[in-house]
Amino acid sequence: MTAATNNTTIIRNGHVFDPLNEINGDIKDIFIKDGKVVSSLTSAEQRDATIIDATGKTVMPGGVDSHSHVAGAKVNAGRLMRPEDHYKSVRTKTALTHSGSGYTVPSVYKQGYDYAAMGYTTVFEAAMPPLEARHTHEEMRSTPILDMGAYLVLGNNWFVMRCLKEGDVEKAAAYVAWMMRTHKAYGIKCVNPAGVENWGWAKNVHGLDEPNIHFEVTSREIIHGLAEVNELLGLPMSLHLHTNNLGHPGNWEITRDSLAIPSDIKPSQKTGVEWAETKMNSRRKQSVYLAHAQFSAFGGSSWRDFQSGVAGLVDYVNKCDHVVIDNGAVPFGPATAMTGDGPAIHDLYMLSGQKWSNTDVEMECGSGVIPFVYLKSSPISSIQWAMGLELLLLINDPWKTIMTTDHPNGGVFTQYPQVMTWLMSKKARDDTAKECHKWAYDKSSLGGVDREMSLYEMAILTRANPACTIGMAYRKGHLGVGADGDVTIYDIDPGKLNLNDTAALTARLARPDFTVKDGRIVARQGEIVAVPEGRRYYCRPHVDDALEKEMLADVKDWFKYYTVGFANYPVPEKYLKNPVAIPVHNAEAEALARR
Amino acid sequence: MAEIILRCKGSIGIMVEAEVIRPDLFAGKKKEEIEELLVWQGQKPLPLSEFFDVDVSRANPSETRPEEANILIEGDVSRVKRIGQGMLAGRIEICGSAGMHLGTEMAGGSILVRGDAGSWAGMGMLGGKLHILGNGADHIGSAYRGSWRGMTGGEIQIDGSARSQLGGGLTCGRILVAGNVENFCGIRQSGGLILVKGSAVRGTGAEMNGGTIAVCGAIKQFSPGFVETSREENVLLGDVQLEGWFRKFTGDYALGKNPKGSLYCKGGLEDAGNAQFR
Fold this sequence. Notes:
The structure holds two protein chains of two kinds. Helix content of chain A is 32%, strand content 21%. By secondary structure, chain A is α/β, with parallel strands linked by helices. In chain A, helix 9 links the parallel strand 12 and strand 13. Chain B has helices at 23-26, 31-36, and strands at 2-8, 16-17, 38-41, 44-47, 52-56, 69-74, 80-81, 91-94, 110-113, 129-132, 155-158, 174-177, 190-196, 200-202, 210-215, 219-221, 227-233, 236-237, 240-241, 245-251, 261-265. Chain B starts with a strand and ends in a 13-residue tail after the last strand. At the A-B interface, loops of A face loops of B.
């Protein structure tokens, strides 16, 4: 590597895995100029470029995590209630980096460094309650290196539920558009629709057609309504769904039925952005993105006859074209369960007796946090481990799957390399199955699965598809001309890949030789060498002015129920560091679309 | 046996964090090497020789095996924290009092303190023996803050008294106190034995789900979630023989429907009029 004197970087001779450009391990040079991938550099630019020799190494786009809990009130609640999670996981200050601590819920600085050291450059917070948006943005602005965004929790929002009950989808859309601009949110998250509202009365809903208390709206109406709103507005990502009955044995059926609800809705992205070049169509194809499917694919009818319900769910996903899932893998070890699904966390409390935090976010949603340990000796944990992998291995089309651990629910993001090794090596799975409870293979089909994913497929699951699914493939998840210069260079020679040396594979995936962000080396073999500020993405959707005016008059009246004043509700843009507003379905967006 | 003597040079201002004072770490090191080991005072790393004169008795210390290493600490080290933290073997004798976190997470070997021990001594201990001739402060032999899994092995003996939260989250091993304890002794205990020869104040065994606590004196304010199950004479707890009549309680029912914790109490139950004493 030679020193850079200008803003150009060349990654030479690497085996490039760039699925959106159908590049499968071909030896190629990657050129980056001013933070963007370019097709070539002039000889003068080449002379002064930072040059990384990637001969015999694996080159992928920077990792994209489309579902992680890394910023906001519930994450911080997890940090506060778990001092024991911190004292043995400490990062000391260096000349360049901040100190930090925390294993399952690290401090924001540590999160940023750990993700970057692992080759990830883009991470989206999966649940931002509107009233906690300010807190979420505060944590995102303090997270180093990463590009981020957050999904707004709307599945039990009183105003949304009222509009949907009245069948007024347009008004709901106007409200959601205003809410996303107001809170600088990126997408719509729907958590246990209709159920979290009932949790305010210590109840839940257990079926798709069970009207909830007071609003008398059903989960089916909310899922369909929000999916319609999503496409009416033309948001970059589809509805992000956390289904009802999460964590209950036998819930795979309600999950399948929930996924069927938005099957009639056509995806429609109306974003005003310029798309980097890709060989494949990089627009999203799904109308629903299922969160942490493992927790929603439970079989059996109780903990006694608990088994994997993945087969039934996978059968449905394999047959349809409107669904993408992330798996929510369980790589064993300590975790901190945190979700907007208050009743699900209460169920976990009743099972484990652990210390437990519960929050009601007035008129909007709720949340719960509880420490959890997935033990290899536990039959349930062992089945969950198998299920997380089954989901990715049994769904035939990798473009329907994303690899996550639902950090820190199923496991910690720093365990991604271990999950990748299990997906790539049957031996790795068999070795673990021998160490854990026999139910892992007895009560799932994982033992009979021979599929071993290639590096190309791993690039789909950890880069290309998360970016496509959330509508970020206009700049992330690939190395086409115009894409962000985010690159991971692993010390893995695809020609000499040894799937039997699983420890070495995991170590190499955990500590890439280089992580490059916007053309700049940010991490080298696990060590942070530069700390640029990331960007914060949010959407600015618009509806017809008259409709917005009418909705807003109603919302202002609605604020008599809030404990905050209408004027204090929004998160101003100055709160965000490096904000990137994505215009959606308005004059600005249409002008760009016509170009 | 190789003797390594640390003589405290004088009074210590800001507390020193000295997890390097470990017999198994000193073993095989020359005097100069021990002197150069770094300790923290506030935000500054300083050599051990800044605070201690080091003497090594053996002519050829490199031959010392960890289990042979014997550290003798002279002077007041009540402002030196983390002595013997994580030690696996060897012996430490402290002539005066020790600072906080003495023998925290030690897994083997032994520590003898002739004076008092600060809070958190023996926290999360895995094995070995910690003997305090004076008094212990708070959280002796307990779990780290926020954790419900404390000591998993070893033994702590206190000849004096201890303060609150002794043996919190105890899962295995035992703690013997000749004097009294204060509040929440054995909170969240799930195994092991705590024996208090004197009295306790309140919250004894709160949220315990297993293991045994025996209080030979009185418990001033009894925890509400305990139910008397029997009266026993000359109870034998492992190799510990208690003398006289004890009431045996099971609890803590505040935690669950079927708790497995046993609490023996001898002394006059001062608020024994409570309805739970059936």
